[in-house]
Specification:
heterodimer, A: alpha/beta, 3 domains, nine-stranded mixed beta sheet, 16 helices, about 10% strand, B: alpha+beta, Ubiquitin Conjugating Enzyme, four-stranded antiparallel beta sheet, 4 helices, 4 strands, globular, binds zinc ion
């Protein structure tokens, strides 16, 4: 099973002859273990014909190496092995008597009881792995791990019992190694090429076979990690790039909206995108002066009133603190403002008071640009030569104590005509939410079906009232003439149209009642089921109308 | 710079004006128990419409920063209208929200609410069922339903 996944599968087996001094004298040092010249000694490389029978206690990618030996069984165990294992094959006793050197066990897989005996014996020794071979002298790759040939009959429990990995090699290779284990188990002199070897190697040294099983996993698991890391990296990069892009896009959109607000293309207040209020600095630039009776004609009265103002007792520039002296600045700010009365305003200024010495923005008393006897907010009449008034760029006048708090805290639109009092190039701070809202509104407006709504009004046989269309008032076509406090701008009552008179005939009570009761029941049911979520959704989808 | 004025003066003024010129849209309109911040109104159904003959009680709550902020207006008598919640009496009217201006008086507001009866917006419904009838073009159904409720849920003069 594990072969296929590549957690631990043997990729190759290397057997070679090592020489090393007696660890009892020289210690176990890496540099003491030297390969013997392969031309003079046994070596073997098996690259493919290896099966992994058990991966117990192996870690992927960690090669297994050690000195080769044949575990020694107890007397009487596995008599069948007698003919298969040379008498002088390397045993534990032929190796240094230390548990600090790794070992690799080799034995033929004769039958389950022999195998169990060998594995139990190897368990006592510091083995890194056990290599079995079928004593069939076959050169073919051994059967698969799940083959019945490898069955111990314990349901695989041996794999957990014996804490080392187990591999299988072909019968011929196993036999060959076993044969050489017999050659390299004793003194140098008895080994193949013993005379030559003894000339180069201290005769007291060990010359033994060692093996290394190369185990897969070098690449498989690390590559998985690398793969995951790459995926993660790509994800992070995508997120980063997206985030940067969105930030950039949002900034662009904010700037675009700001430009459109400044250019007057978008009226934030009229769209209801946000409640815009008027900063104090802008408010203070709006003219403040004492009200004068309004029955005179603007053009001529402006001169007479400014001259006639000194004799009257009450008007006094009551407000010293402001630093902005000039009122006319507010006029060019608003291109929407009606043109006819403007001329009267800047002209009286210079003659009336010395422009620079007077620090207050309070102007001398003069009539408002057109007749407005009443403050539309508190509904009180202005008293000539007594009431101080604030004039908005649209030339509507109010008590400053009425209009100032309203503009500072509630709105930037004139309560009378809904014109913005802000300078045309003024833009409030634009937030992402405002951008979203504006885009949504624009999209919605594009998608609205122009002929949907009238049906309901036809039914009710009434003309569309102006109540809801007042949003159009922001566009500036408002003449500055109308206001009397009686009828403020947004609400106008039109007479019913003379058109249809085809209302359904007066109800026949019983039928109606039945129908009504039925619908009502449905209505109540649905109402109970839905109310809060429903409202939210509608609010989200149609924020303009909420 | 200048302090907002108390709404009391303006409300008193509105009350005076109302006595001088009563509003045709309402059967009655005035403060509840001399509390100028809480008014009560009885709205009349416009003649020649499906709401004809109807009477609905409304409660009007004046905020402390009136008239800079709109009053809260609510139908106390159930009314069958796309933009009025049948149970809570909540009204979806722009004048009561973002289109509010301090020049609007309570009397004007009630006139506007009466107008709303004949100029519903089925696209921003608070009463989905009647709005649905409108949108489906079931005008006869909508009208009979309205007439039914106008009769059944009529302010009884309590
Ligand atoms: Zn005022
Ligand atoms: Zn104005």
């Amino acid at each position: 099973m594990s072969d296929s996944i590549g957690i631990t599968a043997a990729l190759g087996l290397t057997v070679l002859t090592l020489s090393f001094p007696d660890p009892g004298y020289f210690g176990i040092l890496q540099e003491n273990f030297k390969p013997v010249d392969t031309s003079l000694s046994f070596s073997l490389q098996e690259n493919s014909k290896i099966r992994t029978l058990s991966t117990t206690a192996s870690s992927p990618g960690e090669d297994l190496d050690g000195l080769l030996y044949v575990p020694t069984l107890h007397r009487g165990q596995c008599p069948e092995a007698a003919g298969l294992i040379p008498v002088n094959a390397t045993r534990r006793v032929n190796l240094p008597d230390t548990n600090s050197i790794n070992l690799i066990a080799l034995a033929p897989w004769i039958n389950p009881s022999c195998t169990l005996a060998y594995m139990a014996a190897a368990q006592m020794d510091p083995v890194k792995t056990f290599i079995f071979y079928l004593p069939d002298n076959s050169t073919a790759i051994p059967p698969l791990a799940n083959n019945a040939r490898w069955s111990i009959g314990d349901g695989g429990r041996w794999k957990t019992t014996y804490r080392y990995p187990v591999f299988a090699i072909s019968g011929s290779t196993g036999g060959l190694i076993m044969q050489n284990l017999a050659y390299y188990s004793d003194n140098v002199t008895n080994m193949p090429n013993g005379e030559i070897l003894s000339q180069h190697i201290d005769p007291r040294s060990y010359i033994r076979l060692a093996a290394e099983v190369e185990v897969s996993g070098h690449n498989s698991l690390p590559s998985l990690w690398v793969f995951l890391l790459i995926v993660l990296g790509i994800l992070i990069m995508i997120i980063a790039v997206t985030s940067f892009f969105l930030q950039w896009l949002q900034r662009k959109r904010r700037e675009a909206l700001r430009r459109r607000v400044i250019s007057g293309e978008v009226d934030i207040e009229a769209l209801g995108i946000r409640r815009v209020t008027v900063p104090a600095s802008v408010l203070q630039q709006m003219p403040l002066y004492t009200f004068v009776s309004d029955n005179a004609v603007p053009k001529s009265s402006s001169d007479t009133s400014t001259q006639s103002s000194p004799p009257t007792s009450s008007p006094a520039p009551l407000e010293p603190p402001s630093s902005k002296p000039e009122a006319p600045s507010s006029n060019p700010n608003n291109p929407n403002s009606p043109t006819n009365p403007i001329a009267s305003q800047p002209s009286p200024l210079p003659p009336a008071d010395p422009p620079l010495s007077e620090p207050s923005k309070e102007l001398p008393p003069h009539p408002a640009p057109f007749s407005q006897p009443t403050c539309a907010i508190c509904l009180d009449d202005f008293t000539p030569y007594e009431t101080r008034i604030r004039e908005l760029p649209c030339h509507h006048i109010f008590h400053p104590e009425c209009i100032d708090p309203f503009l500072r805290q509630n709105s930037s639109l004139c309560p009378m005509c809904k014109l913005s009092v802000l300078p045309a190039d003024y833009s409030p701070p634009i937030t992402n939410a405002m951008v979203r809202r504006e885009r949504l509104l624009r999209r919605m407006r594009r998608n609205l079906h122009p002929h949907d709504p009238p049906s309901i009004r036809e039914v009710l046989r009434f003309p569309r009232s102006v109540v809801r269309s007042s949003s159009g008032a922001g566009t500036g076509a408002v003449a500055p003439v109308l206001p009397t406090t009686e009828v403020p701008a947004p609400v106008r009552v039109r007479p019913p149209s003379s058109g249809g008179t085809s209302l359904a005939p007066p109800d026949s009570a019983a039928a109606l009642r039945a129908q009504g009761a039925e619908i009502r029941e449905r209505m109540l049911e649905a109402e109970a089921a839905r109310a809060p979520v429903w409202r939210k959704v509608v609010g989200k989808m149609w924020p303009r109308l909420g | 710079m200048s302090k907002a004025q108390s709404p009391l003066k303006r409300l008193t003024r509105e009350l005076q004006d109302l006595q001088d010129e009563p509003n045709d849209a309402v059967l009655r309109l005035g403060p509840v128990d001399d509390d100028l911040f809480h008014w009560h109104a009885v709205l009349k159904g416009p003649a020649g419409t499906a709401y004809e003959g109807g009477l609905w009680a409304l409660s009007i709550t004046i905020p402390p920063n009136y008239p800079n902020a709109p009053p809260k207006v609510r139908f106390e008598t159930p009314i069958c209208h796309p933009n009025v919640h049948f149970q809570t009496g909540e009204i979806c009217l722009d004048l009561l929200k973002d289109k509010w201006a301090p020049t609007i008086t309570i009397s004007i507001l009630l006139t506007s609410i009466q107008q709303l009866l004949t100029s519903a917006e089925p696209d921003s419904p608070l009463n989905v069922d009647i709005a649905q009838l409108f949108r489906q073009g079931d005008w006869a159904g909508a009208e009979s339903l309205i007439r039914y409720y106008t009769q059944v849920e009529r302010w009884d003069g309590r």
